[in-house]
């Protein structure tokens, strides 16, 4: 591979690491061609980009990022590595890995980065699936903030109806 080709791969990876706030690094050691094709097909169907890349290219691409990814260099970036990107859904790669592992345990999660927070090790897969994205968190906060206001409004409306009923009953008694 020529220096220009290597530079193009590193530049492409750098751009993805800077524009997509989450990525997964996996290892698929020992998979057959058919198993790899099944994995790639699943990735394509779900809009996940799956790239097998040299560890040195990943290291160089991450160096350009403002976040500190040195723990990946020390513990994760050795052996065979592949990177998974999904432009919108941070859980999609984790869901795919979990589903694929039901039939093939050769695919391993090495690490993931969600908004520059690192999750290292295959045991982090359930944690990654449980994480809420930004929209889900905002929705929960809005729901929590609206809840007390809704209670106050319903109490005022309910109390107003009771007060009106009491006044009507009192006025009917006076007329009688």
Summarize the structure in words.
- The protein has 176 residues and is of the alpha+beta class.
- 59% of the residues lie in helices and 14% in strands.
- The chain has 7 helices and 5 strands.
- It has helices at 3-19, 33-45, 55-63, 70-75, 92-101, 125-130, 134-175; strands at residues 22-27, 49-52, 82-85, 108-114, 117-120.
- A 5-stranded antiparallel sheet has the order 2-3-1-4-5.
- The protein is elongated and about 100 Å long.
- The mean pLDDT is 81.
* Fraction of helical residues: 55-70%
How many DSSP E strands? 5
SS field, number of helical segments: 7
For the largest beta sheet, what order do the strands appear in spatially? 2-3-1-4-5
Which fold name is given in CATH as the topology of the largest domain? Alpha-Beta Plaits
Number of domains: 2
CATH class category label of the largest domain: Alpha Beta
Global structural class? alpha+beta
Sheet with most strands:
5 strands, antiparallel
Uncertain segments of ≥5 residues (pLDDT<50)? none
Overall average pLDDT: 81
CATH architecture of the largest domain: 2-Layer Sandwich
Shape: elongated
Order of helices and strands: HEHEHHEHEEHH
**Hey, roughly how much beta strand do the residues contain?**
5-15%
Query: What distance lies between the first and last C-alpha atoms, to the nearest angstrom?
Result: 102 Å
**Superfamily (CATH H level) name of the largest domain:** Ribosomal protein L10, N-terminal RNA-binding domain
Rg measurement, Å: 27 Å
């Amino acid at each position: 591979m020529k220096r220009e080709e290597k530079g193009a791969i590193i530049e492409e990876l750098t751009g993805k690491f800077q524009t997509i706030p989450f990525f997964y690094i996996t290892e698929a050691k020992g998979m057959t061609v058919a198993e790899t094709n099944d994995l790639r097909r699943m990735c394509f169907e779900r809009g996940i980009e799956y790239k097998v890349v040299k560890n040195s290219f990943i290291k160089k691409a991450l160096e350009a990022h403002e976040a500190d990814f040195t723990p990946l260099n020390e513990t994760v970036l050795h052996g065979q590595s592949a990177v998974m990107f999904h432009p919108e859904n941070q859980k999609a790669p984790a869901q795919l890995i979990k589903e694929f592992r039901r039939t093939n345990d050769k695919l391993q999660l090495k690490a993931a980065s969600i908004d520059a927070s690192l999750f290292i090790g295959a045991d982090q897969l359930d944690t990654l699936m449980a994480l809420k994205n930004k929209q889900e968190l905002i929705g929960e906060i809005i729901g929590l903030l609206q809840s007390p206001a809704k209670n106050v409004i319903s109490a005022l409306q309910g109390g107003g109806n009771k007060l009106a009923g009491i006044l009507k009953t009192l006025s009917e008694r006076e007329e009688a």
